[in-house]
């Protein structure tokens, strides 16, 4: 609801009853403020859009951003779609305010958006995806972690050694999204690294239990070149890796429990430590 103030005007007290005249002589009405949207004897001192009272003294582009779900880009898009000038909010006409309200209802904002996000987060927690785990633990996501990496030279740290469980990745070579769902890896995936022997191993579980081992060549204190040497199909059939089996891996965050890595193709890997004593086969 908009805040309303009455615009006072002269009243002939002689035309009022005596009792009313006495009260009128002791009552004063505030003078109308400048600005706002007026209609008859009423003046609106603020505007309510999308269930939110937006500032009257700012331009519409900035006032709309007080609504949860409307940022700078969306605010500008709304003005563009309506062919509105970016005027001060209080200078909007009644017709423009009504049009603006209708336009804003096209977007998911305020309570609806908050409910949607809450349900989405709960769903991520239930399926235990990377973001869901981070939300459940109250921890920041990958980029925020990388900014505060406590281990500046991970290849020189004992924290890197051991067997890690893959929590999240963007790698299509691991996720295999082009395959039918029942042929995609759906079991736990592990990666092990030993810095003393410069060996690494990737291990799938269901459905194929495939494995691959690799030699690591340090490029700096946080990045290695990866040279795959052997693949194991169903953890039984060993095949020598082709010469093209290579890549790079950079450790961008490392602590006692969590590791974030990025591949040379831009893929993100997030892993948690499960066995610090695991040794990769030579």
From TrEMBL:
<protein>
    <submittedName>
        <fullName>Putative plastid-lipid-associated protein 4, chloroplastic</fullName>
    </submittedName>
</protein>
<dbReference type="Pfam" id="PF04755">
    <property type="entry name" value="PAP_fibrillin"/>
</dbReference>
<keyword id="KW-0809">Transit peptide</keyword>
<dbReference type="InterPro" id="IPR039633">
    <property type="entry name" value="PAP"/>
</dbReference>
<keyword id="KW-0687">Ribonucleoprotein</keyword>
<dbReference type="GO" id="GO:0003735">
    <property type="term" value="F:structural constituent of ribosome"/>
</dbReference>
<keyword id="KW-0934">Plastid</keyword>
<dbReference type="GO" id="GO:0003723">
    <property type="term" value="F:RNA binding"/>
</dbReference>
<dbReference type="InterPro" id="IPR006843">
    <property type="entry name" value="PAP/fibrillin_dom"/>
</dbReference>
<dbReference type="GO" id="GO:1990904">
    <property type="term" value="C:ribonucleoprotein complex"/>
</dbReference>
<keyword id="KW-0689">Ribosomal protein</keyword>
<comment type="similarity">
    <text>Belongs to the universal ribosomal protein uS13 family.</text>
</comment>
<dbReference type="InterPro" id="IPR010979">
    <property type="entry name" value="Ribosomal_uS13-like_H2TH"/>
</dbReference>
<feature type="domain" description="Plastid lipid-associated protein/fibrillin conserved">
    <location>
        <begin position="141"/>
        <end position="272"/>
    </location>
</feature>
<dbReference type="GO" id="GO:0009536">
    <property type="term" value="C:plastid"/>
</dbReference>
<dbReference type="GO" id="GO:0006412">
    <property type="term" value="P:translation"/>
</dbReference>
<dbReference type="GO" id="GO:0005840">
    <property type="term" value="C:ribosome"/>
</dbReference>
<dbReference type="InterPro" id="IPR027437">
    <property type="entry name" value="Rbsml_uS13_C"/>
</dbReference>
């Amino acid at each position: 609801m908009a805040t309303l103030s009455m615009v006072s005007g002269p009243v002939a007290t002689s035309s009022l009853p005596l009792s009313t005249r006495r009260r009128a002589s002791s009552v004063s009405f505030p003078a109308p403020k400048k600005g706002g949207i007026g209609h008859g004897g009423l003046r609106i001192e603020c505007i309510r859009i999308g269930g939110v009272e937006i500032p009257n003294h700012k331009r519409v582009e900035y006032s709309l951003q007080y609504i949860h779900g409307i940022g700078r880009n969306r605010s500008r898009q709304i003005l563009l779609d309506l062919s509105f000038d970016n005027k001060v909010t209080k200078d909007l006409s009644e017709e423009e305010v009504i049009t603006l309200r209708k336009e804003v209802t096209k977007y998911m904002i305020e309570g609806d958006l908050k409910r949607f996000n809450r349900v989405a987060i709960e769903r991520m927690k239930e399926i235990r995806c990377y973001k869901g785990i981070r939300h459940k633990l109250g921890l920041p996501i990958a980029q925020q972690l990388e900014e505060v990496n406590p281990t500046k030279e991970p290849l020189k740290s004992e924290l890197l050694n051991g067997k890690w469980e893959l929590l999240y990745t963007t790698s299509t070579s691991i996720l295999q999204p082009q395959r039918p769902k029942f042929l995609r890896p759906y079991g736990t995936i592990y990666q092990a690294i030993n810095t003393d022997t410069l060996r690494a191993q990737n291990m799938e579980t269901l459905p194929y239990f495939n494995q691959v081992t690799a030699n690591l060549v340090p490029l700096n204190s946080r990045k290695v070149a990866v040279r795959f040497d052997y693949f194991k199909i169903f953890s039984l059939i060993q095949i020598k890796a082709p010469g093209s089996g290579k890549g790079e891996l950079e450790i961008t965050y490392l602590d006692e429990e969590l590791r974030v890595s990025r591949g040379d193709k831009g893929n993100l890997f997030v892993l948690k430590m499960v066995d610090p004593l695991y040794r990769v086969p030579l």
